[in-house]
Amino acid sequence: MTYTILRDTREQQGWSFSPYQKCNGMELATLKTGDYTIKEMPELICIERKASVAEIANNVIKEKDRFTRELERMRDFPNKYIICEFSMDDIMKFPEGAGLPKSVKDNIRINGKFLIRVLLELQQEYGFQLLFCGNSSNAFVVAASIMKRIYEKNCGV
Question: Do residues 93 and 112 touch, judged by C-beta distance below 8 A?
Fold first, then answer.
């Protein structure tokens, strides 16, 4: 038996999965929750990709209601992940190194410690795994590995 990875159509610059081992590759689909799942078992796994510290900071500050609704929908998945293409160090330095224009950075009133606190509180409340992978390549490998393990575990492979 093989599986196919689904990527949400709204995921603009996401990962592309080619066929490998038991994976047939990737298809685009409109996902109600998250950015990635497994086509054959979409109720088991939800992966949300975060490309930058600025993106996740925007999620927890400016788009808090929308982000909270997303986390609420993720709650029902037994395997739910937020996979970050940056490091914990990158979060701790925020807003430095976030690629924000000086005019925006000068008006930010939060720091990395605050972001970590909010993310850990959300993680505890909604039960997702928060993974800091350092870069896009590592995050892709982690996501592919997670999906392969979920598939194998649930197919008795």
Answer: yes
Q: Measure CA of the first residue to CA of the last residue in the chain; give whole Å.
A: 9
CA atoms within a 13 Å half-sphere pointing along the CA-CB vector of 64: 7
Distance CA 132, CA 60 (A): 16
For 53-96, what is each residue's pLDDT tens digit? Answer: 999 999 998 899 999 999 999 999 999 999 999 999 999 998 88
pLDDT digits (tens, 9 = 90+) for 13-67: 899 999 988 899 999 999 999 999 999 999 999 999 999 999 999 999 889 999 9
Q: Which overall architecture, per CATH, does domain 3-155 show?
A: 3-Layer(aba) Sandwich (3.40)
d(CA 24, CA 2): 7
C-alpha closest to that of 51 among 8, 84, 87? 84
Round to whole Å and give the CA distance between 15 and 11.
9
User: What does DSSP say about strands 3-8 and 129-132: parallel, antiparallel, or unpaired?
Assistant: unpaired
